[in-house]
Design goal:
357 residues; alpha/beta; Rossmann fold; 9-stranded mixed beta sheet; 12 helices; binds nicotinamide-adenine-dinucleotide
Length: 357
């Protein structure tokens, strides 16, 4: 059957939705047919810039989900809405793209996963760093065994957003769930699973450094109750031990990620800042060949990231709907497993006790 257009409803027309709509415009079949946002200006802007001719707007997500000409739904709202919106999408039986972290709690995440899998709905979760060429290359090297058995990983995810953000939903526990932990940690936990397998147990601690931020609606300050920073230690089922730090207060960092991966036969350092990726490797061959002669030569040398065509999350979404290869994207089960780690880390931060996954 020839596929023509796949009519998409976008729910939540904020900053991340712009990125997705730009890349959706590069797909062959996905077309933006309906934009739903409680902010009418945002919806109008998105429809005007990325919508097909006649693209509609609305403010009630239920209306968007059930519209007869909508074949698939993209959910890019604040976290507290993910569960309720997705459950309606599942009831309507439509394929979906959902942002991370998928839910506010593990109970919510389990219900979303269970009901989605019962209906076998095509879906993609927004683990966007899976699509970075350097990260893909890094993952290939690690998975091919270039480093031997992974023993330790040290990872940093550091932000310092400019201009300094006001007290948006991200700083409200009731809307975001957690702060740096769920926002930055969701990506890192997903990446770590790809590099070192499943998490066995976790210990965490986090805190708030900036207790109030400017009222986005006007004058004055408002309280913040989500973590500005979070540190976690993960024991992986493989035996590897991972130390992670997430911070929204890393002065000078825009969107910085670093993974130092130490294996039994080699080591690798991956860095991302803005869209620039770097990889340095101290390879097993190098180590074995040189060790007896010059032990101090255990140097890390830059590796060129091979150029290759990189797909996008939206291409993966189109492919999922068409039953094609989803290009290494994450799905609802990955979202659930990441939520397990977020929730366990959060409980550990309150209790001070290691949590099993
Ligand atoms: N995958 C990634 O790399 C990545 C990056 C940034 C954000 N995100 C995720 O994307 C989601 C949105 O983040 P953002 O930065 O775009 O936030 P944002 O605040 O810029 O946008 C959210 C939009 O949702 C709208 N909205 C709020 N309530 C609504 C409702 N009831 N119905 C319809 N629309 C509603 C808001 O008006 C706003 O336009 C979050 O879950 C976040 O974690 C993912």
């Amino acid at each position: 059957m020839a596929v023509n257009k796949i009519g998409v409803a976008l729910i939540g027309a904020g900053s991340m939705a712009c990125t997705h709509m730009r890349s959706m415009a590069q797909t062959d079949h996905l077309v933006l047919r309906l934009v739903c946002d409680i902010n009418q200006t945002a919806a109008e802007h998105m429809a005007a810039n990325y919508g097909e001719e006649g693209c509609r707007i609305c403010s009630d997500y239920r209306e968007a989900i059930v519209a007869a000409d909508i074949d698939a739904v993209i959910i890019v709202t604040p976290n507290f809405l993910h569960h309720d919106i997705l459950m309606d999408v599942i009831r309507a039986g439509k394929p979906y793209y959902l942002e991370k972290p998928i839910a506010m709690t593990l109970d919510e995440a389990l219900e979303m996963k269970t009901e989605s899998e019962k209906k076998n709905l095509p879906n993609i979760i927004g683990f966007s760093y899976r699509f970075y060429p350097g990260f893909r290359y890094l993952k290939d090297l690690v998975n091919q065994g270039v480093l031997g058995d992974i023993r330790h990983i040290y990872s940093i995810y550091a932000h310092y957003p400019r201009p300094i953000p006001p007290r948006t939903w991200r700083f409200e526990k009731s809307k975001a769930g957690t702060g740096a932990l769920g926002d930055l940690g969701a990506h890192t936990f997903d990446s770590l699973r790809l590099l070192a397998g499943e998490v066995e147990s976790v210990w965490g601690m986090g805190g708030i450094v900036v207790p109030e931020r400017a009222n986005p609606q006007g004058y004055g300050m408002m309280p913040v109750d989500t973590d500005d920073y979070f540190n976690a230690v993960l024991r992986m089922q493989s035996g590897a031990v991972v130390t992670c730090s997430f911070s929204r207060l890393a002065y000078g960092r825009f969107n910085y990620q670093r993974y130092e991966i130490y294996g039994s036969q080699g080591s690798l350092v991956y860095e991302l800042e803005k869209a620039q990726e770097k990889i340095e490797v101290c390879s097993g061959d190098f180590y074995c060949d040189r060790y007896q002669f010059t032990p101090i030569d255990h140097t890390f040398a830059p590796y060129d990231i091979p150029p290759r065509h990189e797909p996008s999350l939206m291409q993966a979404f189109e492919n999922a709907i068409l039953g094609k290869d989803i290009l290494g994207a994450g799905q609802i089960d990955d979202g659930y497993r990441v939520q397990q780690v977020i929730e366990a880390a959060s409980i550990s931060a309150e209790s001070g006790v290691w949590q099993k996954i």
